[in-house]
Give the backbone structure.
Amino acid sequence: MTIFKKIIDKEIPADIVFEDDLCLAFRDVSPQAPTHILLIPKKEIRSMNDIDPASDKEVLGHLMVQAHEIAKSEGLGEDGYRLVINTNKNGGQSVYHLHIHIMGGRALAWPPG
Ligand code: AMP
């Protein structure tokens, strides 16, 4: 079980900004930008490598729509923001429960290191 599953189950605290039947969003404990939120499916999916092309379409589409809604409600829409899904070792993934980083509030460098 990952730490994110424990946050879903409310076994450990998190600064939750949005929740519905399919997903949960909370502030990153180590923010890399003025706004840094993690958006996760409640379904335990390890990484982008583990998505089911058929049955996970709804939840993945929902995550993208909610990512935008959250960015908008955080006031990031006009200046812009970045969505990131780190995948496995070379992607820099450290928690193996799929998550979208929603980052904004400053100009972000490109390319990432
Ligand atoms: P990644 O490296 O893409 O797997 O991102 C994992 C993210 O989870 C990192 O940005 C961590 O700072 C964040 N993180 C780890 N534990 C927690 C926690 N308990 N609450 C909030 N964010 C966390």
The longest strand covers residues 35-41. The chain has a mean pLDDT of 98. The beta strands are 16-19, 23-27, 35-41, 81-84, 100-104.
